Write the structure tokens for this entry.
Amino acid sequence: MSDESTQVGRVLGSQHSSTSAFRVVLDDDNFLQLDDLVVVRTQVPKAGEVRTYGVVTEAEAVYEGASYESDTHRIAELGIMPAAKVRTAQVQVTRVDPEVWVSPDPGETVERATGDERAKALYVDEMSRPLAIGIGRDELPVHIDLDFFDGRKGGHMSISGISGVATKTSFALFFLRMLSAREHAGLVGEGAANMRVLVFNVKGEDLLWLDRANSRFDDEAREGWAALGVEPTPFPSVAFWAPPKRRSGDVVVPDTGGRFDGIDVFSWTPREFIDDDLMQFCFTDANDAKNQIPFIRERVQTQLKRFAVNVAGRPGAVVLRDPSQTPGARWGAQEVPAGPGEPVIDDLASLVTALEVFLEPEDGSEPDQAWTGRVMPSTVSAFMRRLHAAASRLGHLVRAGESRRIDRGSATVTVVAIQSLHEQGQRFVVGALLNETFREKEETGRRLPLSVIVLDELNKYAPREGSGPLKDMLIDIAQRGRSLGVLLVGAQQTASRVAPEVLENAAIRVSGRLDAAEAERAEYGWMLPSTRARARVLKPGTMVISQPAIPVPLVVTFPFPPWATRKEEVDEAPGPDPFAGLQPPAPPPG
């Protein structure tokens, strides 16, 4: 790539230029389009040459000399009126080098920034670890400073846009593929080898084919990946997990519709449910915090840990016994045989039934205050109603037997399919896994290896209004996660409905096509006015990216994925013919 810059025009002299923006009047034999990069060299007294870099945000044309609308016909068709066609471009300043903040002089030559000048315009020379995040209008890579994602200087990414058009999930997967590419192993650093990515599949089964080649992948898409310097292949290390089908009996099968092979089934035992305080994620409704239900839940969780004892010969099952009658049984440290008629807790429904003895006695007596504290009986009833609803909606996720916890270390990318679950079940799984991930990081206190979490429909789990254990955890991850190596890639249709604490801590912000009303919300104040207008009509595969390393947002595209995004796209290339080269048998005599 040549480092020579070519003149495209001059700084317009009929309007004021400033340190933030200026206009360019174009040469007759040249052009500038949106997102092109330019440089202006200005001789400043006592400071020498100052280079002003910028990106084109708008292009215009006008007949100079026309006064009325009808003059256009007289100039263009009849040629009876003198006028000159003038084309101009609006430029937003991205950088001044050296940092002598003066406006470019009118009439100065404006050149297209290429080679080293392009790298300076995009601050690539100041990025310690530039990672390609997309392709610019000039078909060259556009980079982000990885320090602002992996926690060294900042962390997290927020992606917004209209569902089905903004390609939020597609961009998130593209970013993960770039982050985990072997070509970038040295760039990501020592955290690359053991990096773990947790992806939640919340809609359809689009993410259950990341390890399969895409039959629609063509040469044009291959050229896009070549420009980014990455070999276009499906994700090389992926593990898939799905919940069990309801009423599946002794045979546990994944609750999926399009793919069954290579998918493991996940669930939690009652013992794990109690020890990990997973009951809190049965109460993720933001309205529950307005009453005393969280107080009862905490008391019940404490008592369950005190009373629950493992059942001999029944892995994961427990019974509730007074610890004074079973010394050493607290925290599941001992196994005991189930007594005659003693109810064994082997799923969530049986746990709820066991709790009724303490919280809703059949004889009509008051609830046991050791379990509920001093609260109104109506609040205890509300607690039990919610627990019964949870048992109905997500009870099949808690069952005794062999542990089926999700192994997040078996592959680089772990896809958890929760699309078949009730909304309450989805929140339960998300909360349980986030809690497990964050707790492990807190216990080790080490930032590496990195743990990346990809969560779509973030507004459902961390809504702007209300509070709850899941929302509180996501806020905690947003605020403290980068120091522990827990990084959130959150996607949502409307950023205005997400908790501000989560959005404010996202160093990298990305947007696809936006609804016209949503684009005017304060959450998109990082965009330029011209960029907001463009965001309403962006095509799929085109994104607006803001990062701390560059003071203005940039528009990029990303190439078509080499991995399948639905069952119909899976490349089912036929294998070798086992009968190739064999001669047909000879016909029988006669």
Notes: Confidence is low (pLDDT under 50) at residues 328-332, 574-585.
